[in-house]
Amino acid sequence: MSDVPNRPKVVLTHWVHNEVIQLLSETCTVVANTTREALSRDEICRRSRDADGLMVFMPDSIDKTFLDSCPQLKVIAGALRGYDNFDVESCSDRQIWFTIVPDLLAAPTAELTIGLLIGLARRLLEGDALIRHGKFPGWRPILYGKGLTNKTLGVVGMGKLGRSLAERLQGFQMHLLYADPVPLSAELEKMWQIEAAPLAELLESSDYVVLMVPLQPDTFHLINRERIACMKPGSILINPCRGSVVDEKAVADALASGHLAGYAADVFEMEDWTRCDRPSSIEPRLLQNQNQTFFTPHLGSAVEEIRFEIAMEAAMNLLQALRGDIPRGAVNQINK
Is the keyword Ribosomal protein in the record (predicted)? Predict the structure, then answer.
């Protein structure tokens, strides 16, 4: 869209639905990414040099250098929930709002988590490969997996993601544990038939461990060699939250030794841009291990209608900030 005087310029780094662009175009000059491909950092910087607003997504990363190249920015709206890849403190220093969409990702992420859990425990990928390679055994089962009934599942982290998972696990007839510094109310524990436990006890007791924590200094490599050694032999680890919550090399070693029976993930250490030592790829041994692992390409919120709602809410945050209001999804404070 061509520039119109006195209209704020908004840059969208990734593809969004046309309805989102139309909403923003009513009052803004919109520079949209109309492709399904990610823009390079240099291209985003070029488009954003004179921008007033920016909508960002999980593959993006914003740091001081980027902000210094975009002096007119007033708001960065994340179409996301976890924002560890973005320097929010530097945004605050420059009087730039940073907003997120906190409430729409929990349900689809919990659904995917259950899919990862069942897919790995019941060896669904192996079964699919067996059929495709013409080795269908007929009625005779040959891939024996782990069931869920009467097993213990531990949830590490009981924020929105953990709660959404616990709610959806009802009916699986599992013994549920959780570890979190802030306990659930007695009413929720009773409703979801879930018990609080120290992390060490949860790891020792659980057949399945699901990680639902944000990436922070105290959760970096929360699951490391020492904690994996404390896990129940033959247990399965599921990571749908952040890659660097897990030490992938330690997981690969535990799978090779047989201490862990499986590892499923929707996130990987290589994605965490704020780490100066982040690896350039997924631990190769995990990728080579096709019988004990199950990986998805960050599908947690990849549901058509959910992505639409997320982008629309991010757009509303942009518009609120550009009007001079405090945006609903702000995670920082600025002095304006």
Answer: no
